[in-house]
Amino acid sequence: MRLAAALLVIAIVVGASYAAISYYWLTPTEKFAPPRDVTIEKGESFRQIARALGDAGVVRSEFALRMYGRMSRTASQIKPGDYAFKGGERIPEVMRHLVKGDFIVVTVTIPEGLTVHEIAERVAQTGLVCEDEFEDAARDGALVRALGLMPLGAEGYLFPATYKFSPHAKTEDVLAAMLARFYQILTPQVEERMFTVGLDARRLVTMASIVEKEAKAPSERPLIAGVFYNRLRLGMPLQSDPTAEYELDGAKESAASAVHTTSAFNTYDFTGLPPGPIANPGLKSIEAALNPAQTDYLYFVAREGGTHVFSKSYDEHRRVIASERKAAGDKQAGAPVK
To answer: What does the pLDDT look like over 230-244, one tens digit per residue?
Structure first.
């Protein structure tokens, strides 16, 4: 009798435990409207995470979540971040989100060729940072000072890419991510090539930024880089319209007017590269600056469709300009001659 009673108690306990596990592990919570946000900080213990999820009602039982995490061996695989839970999920599904890192992100896409001023505007549109605060940090902040990017700041070093940030990211987080992506491309092979070509990082991004702003057809980037290197070698001014148009504060002026405006960046006024980049170039333009096409071209002029006609002599260049103006109905009659 005692044995039977003991077995009955064990059966009841096991049955109750199974029922509890089934309820807490396998029964979804109610749907939430709006979703419930839970932030998991880096370094938090699984006990703290379970408590936060339990307090938010994302799981029915903090204890059941802890048991599941240990039994499934997923407790140590949780990724920190800001999560939004819509409810209606079981503990295994909640854990799946935490392990995969399905946290809330703010996505920011930075196209090639934007200036620091334009990037600040774009990031501010997401609500992540204040535009002026970001631009000030990129121009003269502690991080750019620590990296030795003064006096011109991070212009040219903010790598164009798609970034994903926590909605709680700060200006320094955003700036650090963009700078980190740039420095990732400076591999030993790239640095060896920079040495061979005679470039440091600033001269590299300066040349690449000019190529980025001039090239509309990707295939022409090495050709355009080659033209500018040829001009540098011969002591000719680069005469690049985008350098004349560049303004730190983002002010816009037409090329026809800008080329006649004296500035530190206007390469119609001097020989050599400008003092720094005029935009933030992408990888293809950086590669073109490292590996320019080996040609005798010294001039190029834009034609309909965004491509260019390249010339070896000034007389040939003038004939091409006349031909292109005639073909375009004299639409570019006021364009400056490079």
So the answer is: 999 999 999 999 999
What separation in angstroms does the CA of 261 have from each of 212, 225, 244, 245, 272? Answer: 22, 24, 7, 9, 18
**What pLDDT, in 10s, does the model give residues 80-139?**
988 889 889 999 999 999 999 888 888 999 999 999 999 999 999 998 899 999 999 999
Using alpha carbons only, what angle is made at residue 330 by residues 329 and 336, rounded to the nearest 5 degrees?
Answer: 150
Nearest to 274 by CA among 177, 99, 152: 152
The type of residue at 81 is G
CB 273 within 8 A of CB 103: no
Q: Is 8 left (phi over 0), alpha (psi -120 to 50) or beta?
A: alpha
Residue 272 is given by DSSP the state S
Tokens of 186: 């400076």
Residue 239 backbone class (left: φ over 0; alpha: ψ -120 to 50; beta: rest): left
Judged by DSSP in three states, 96 sits in: helix
Which two structure tokens, joined as six digits, stand for 4? 């039977």
The upper half-sphere exposure of residue 1, i.e. CA atoms within 13 Å in the direction of its Cβ, equals 0
Residue located via tokens 């834009």: 302
Check residue 198 and give left, alpha or beta (phi > 0: left; psi -120 to 50: alpha).
Answer: left
87 forms bridges with which residues in the sheet? 31
Task: Quote the CA–CA distance of 29 and 44 in Å, as a whole number.
Answer: 24
> Are the C-beta atoms of 295 and 310 separated by less than 8 Å?
yes
Residue 98, both tokens? 């935490």
Residue 126 in tokens: 């997401």
Of 127, 126, 128, 66, nearest to 98 by C-alpha is 66
Residue whose structure tokens are 């807490």: 24
Measured CA to CA in angstroms, residue 239 lies from 231, 255, 336 at distances of 9, 11, 9
